[in-house]
Design goal:
single chain; 0% strand; 159 residues; mainly alpha; disordered N terminus
């Protein structure tokens, strides 16, 4: 089964493949960005022998889950079948954005690079949240659109 055959199936064809790959790539890049932004504070806390704040650890866990999910979704399978997991990640990103947005959106950096970095991180959280919402909605759309089709190999069973 070549690329052309796989990309022209009932899940949207070549354009859908490009959209899927671009979306997953952006999700991966922004997840890594979050890991770096929040990891900086966790590393500074470790160096200062201070406990790791659970909010930052939570953000790192969500970023890690998102990055691993993107890697797994690059394996050729109909990842739109896992739209529920995308929705769960969307909810996790909503929590991250809510936690840090409440802490930093109205904060004035006034030359403090740490506060400015966290203000930037909040907006990256928002982008992550929106990207996972789009992938969950797109996956749900493809899932329900393709439910009435026949099986891939024999064409006999209704899927």
């Amino acid at each position: 089964m070549g690329f052309k055959e796989r990309s022209s199936n009932s899940s949207g064809g070549f354009v859908a493949f490009i959209i899927h790959a671009t979306l997953r790539f952006l999700q991966f890049v922004f997840a890594l960005t979050v890991l770096g932004l929040y990891g900086t504070d966790l590393n500074n806390a470790r160096k200062a022998h201070v406990y790791a704040d659970k909010k930052w650890v939570y953000a790192e866990v969500v970023g890690g889950l998102a990055a691993v999910t993107c890697i797994v979704y690059m394996i050729p399978f109909k990842s739109y079948l896992a739209f529920g997991w995308d929705a769960i990640l969307f909810i996790l990103w909503v929590a991250v954005f809510g936690i840090f947005g409440k802490m930093y959106i109205h904060e004035h950096a006034e030359g403090d690079s740490g506060v400015q970095r966290m203000k930037n991180a909040v907006w990256i959280d928002l982008v992550n949240m929106l990207l996972w919402l789009v992938s969950a909605l797109y996956g749900a759309f493809l899932f329900f659109k393709n439910r009435g089709h026949r099986s891939l190999h024999t064409g006999r069973a209704a899927v």
